[in-house]
C-alpha cells in the first residue's frame, strides 16, 4: 500500500511531481494537496482526479509524508501553522524549496523530525527530471528509500552528503533548464537575424538540443570528446567555439552559477 502524502502547495513543481507519481501507478487516493489559489485547486482536482483542499492542517493530518512545495518566502509561516500537528504526528518531512535548510524546517516544525531536502527540476514533468537529495540525521534507511522512490518517479536521484552543496545543486540542475532554454533562445534569435525563417530556426535549434542531449546521455563519450568530434580543424565550429572562448563563456558560466548559489544562501537568510 502506498503511504499517504500531503502536498503543501499545489503549484508547478507539485503538479510535475504528482504527475510522475500517477504515471508510476501511485495510488491516487493516497495523495492530498493543500492549495489556497482556487483556479489552481480546481484544475488539479479535475485534471488529476486527486483531493485538493484549501487547508494545510486538514491535508497534513494523518499523512505519513508531508511534502512542502511552497515558495521559500512563505515556508516559515506555513511551518508555524503546522508545528503543533508535526510534533503530534512526527511525519517524514520533504521539502523542495530553494535555499531553505533542513535545520530551518526542523526547527520551524518544533524539532526532532526526519527531514529530506530535495532539489528537483522542471523536466520532472516528463519523467526526465534530475533530483539532488539531502537527508538529516533523523532520516532512517526506510525513509530514505521512500523519499527516493517518490522522486525516482520524476527522474534521476543523487544523494548529497553535505547540505551546503544543495545550493550548488540548485544552481546546476534546479535552475539549469533555464540556462539551456536561454542558450536555445539566443541561438534561434541569431539565426533569424541572419535571415532564417523563425519556424525553421526553432525546429532546427530544438532538435539540435534534443539530439545533443541524447548523445550526452547515451553515447558513453565524454562531453569534451563529443564537442571535439563536431569541431573540424579550422572549420565553422572552430570559428564559433573560438568566439565563445574569447568572449569568456566559461568565466560567465562560473559567475552565473556562483550568483545562483549565493542567491540560495541569501534565500535561507532572508526567510529565517
Ligand atoms: N520551478 C522550478 O523550476 C523549481 C522550483 N523549486 C522550488 O519549488 C517550490 C515551488 O515552486 P513552484 O512550484 O515553481 O512555485 P508555484 O508558485 O507554482 O507553487 C507554489 C504554490 O504554493 C501555493 N501557496 C502559496 N501560499 C501557500 C500557503 N500558505 N499554503 C499552501 N500553499 C501555498 C501557491 O498558491 C502556489 O500554487 C519553491 O520553493 C521553489 O524554490 C525547486 C526546483 C525547481
Ligand atoms: O528559481 C528558483 O528559485 C527555483 C529554484 C530552482 C529553479 N527554480
Number of domains: 2
The CATH homology group name of the largest domain = NAD(P)-binding Rossmann-like Domain
Shape: elongated
String of helices and strands: EHEHEHEHEHEEHEHHHHHH
- At CATH level 2, the architecture of the largest domain is 3-Layer(aba) Sandwich
For the secondary structure, the number of strands is 8
Secondary structural class: alpha/beta
Q: Can you tell me the CATH class of the largest domain?
A: Alpha Beta
Distance between the termini: 37 Å
Spatial extent as radius of gyration: 21 Å
Provide the helix percentage.
55-70%
- Main β-sheet: number of strands, strand sense, barrel status? 8 strands, mixed
Named CATH topology of the largest domain = Rossmann fold
Offer a few descriptive terms.
oxidoreductase; binds 1,4-dihydronicotinamide adenine dinucleotide; amino-acid biosynthesis; Rossmann fold; 272 residues; ProC C-terminal domain-like fold; cytoplasm; proline biosynthesis; alpha/beta; 13% strand
Would you kindly provide a brief summary of this structure?
Catalyzes the reduction of 1-pyrroline-5-carboxylate (PCA) to L-proline. The protein is α/β, with parallel strands linked by helices.
Descriptive overview:
Its main location: cytoplasm. It is an enzyme of class 1 (oxidoreductase). Residues 163-264 form the Pyrroline-5-carboxylate reductase dimerisation domain. GO terms for molecular function: pyrroline-5-carboxylate reductase activity. Helices cover 57% and strands 13% of the residues. By secondary structure, it is α/β, with parallel strands linked by helices. It folds into two domains: 5-169, NAD(P)-binding Rossmann-like Domain (Rossmann fold, 3-Layer(aba) Sandwich); 176-267, ProC C-terminal domain-like fold. Strand 2 (31-34), helix 2 (38-48) and strand 3 (51-53) form a beta-alpha-beta unit. Helix 7 crosses helix 12 (249-270) and helix 8 packs across helix 9. It is elongated and about 70 Å long. The mean pLDDT is 97. Bound molecules: 1,4-dihydronicotinamide adenine dinucleotide and (2S)-3,4-dihydro-2H-pyrrole-2-carboxylic acid. (2S)-3,4-dihydro-2H-pyrrole-2-carboxylic acid binds at residues 98, 170, 174-175.
Amino acid at each position: 500500500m502506498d503511504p499517504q502524502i500531503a502536498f503543501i502547495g499545489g503549484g508547478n513543481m507539485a503538479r510535475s511531481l504528482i504527475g510522475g507519481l500517477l504515471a508510476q501507478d501511485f495510488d491516487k487516493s493516497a495523495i492530498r494537496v493543500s492549495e489556497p489559489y482556487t483556479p489552481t485547486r480546481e484544475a488539479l482536482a479535475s485534471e488529476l482526479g486527486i483531493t485538493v483542499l484549501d487547508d494545510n492542517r486538514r491535508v497534513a493530518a494523518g499523512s505519513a509524508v508531508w511534502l512542502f512545495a511552497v515558495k521559500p518566502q512563505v515556508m516559515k509561516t506555513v511551518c508555524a501553522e503546522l508545528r503543533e500537528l508535526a510534533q503530534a504526528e512526527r511525519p517524514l518531512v520533504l521539502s523542495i524549496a530553494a535555499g531553505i535548510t533542513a535545520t530551518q524546517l526542523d526547527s520551524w516544525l518544533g524539532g526532532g523530525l526526519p527531514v529530506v531536502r530535495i532539489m528537483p527540476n522542471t523536466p520532472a514533468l516528463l519523467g526526465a527530471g534530475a533530483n539532488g537529495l539531502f537527508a538529516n540525521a533523523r532520516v532512517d534507511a526506510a525513509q530514505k528509500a521512500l523519499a527516493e522512490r517518490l522522486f525516482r518517479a520524476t527522474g534521476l536521484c543523487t544523494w548529497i552528503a553535505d547540505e551546503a552543496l544543495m545550493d550548488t545543486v540548485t544552481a546546476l540542475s534546479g535552475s539549469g533548464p533555464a540556462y539551456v532554454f536561454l542558450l536555445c533562445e539566443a541561438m534561434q534569435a541569431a539565426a533569424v537575424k541572419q535571415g532564417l525563417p523563425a519556424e525553421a530556426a526553432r525546429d532546427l535549434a530544438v532538435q539540435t538540443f534534443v539530439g545533443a542531449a541524447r548523445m550526452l546521455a547515451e553515447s558513453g563519450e565524454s562531453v569534451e570528446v563529443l564537442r571535439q568530434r563536431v569541431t573540424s580543424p579550422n572549420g565553422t565550429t572552430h570559428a564559433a567555439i573560438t568566439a565563445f572562448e574569447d568572449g569568456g563563456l566559461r568565466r560567465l558560466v562560473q559567475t552565473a552559477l556562483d550568483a545562483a548559489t549565493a542567491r540560495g544562501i541569501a534565500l535561507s537568510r532572508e526567510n529565517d
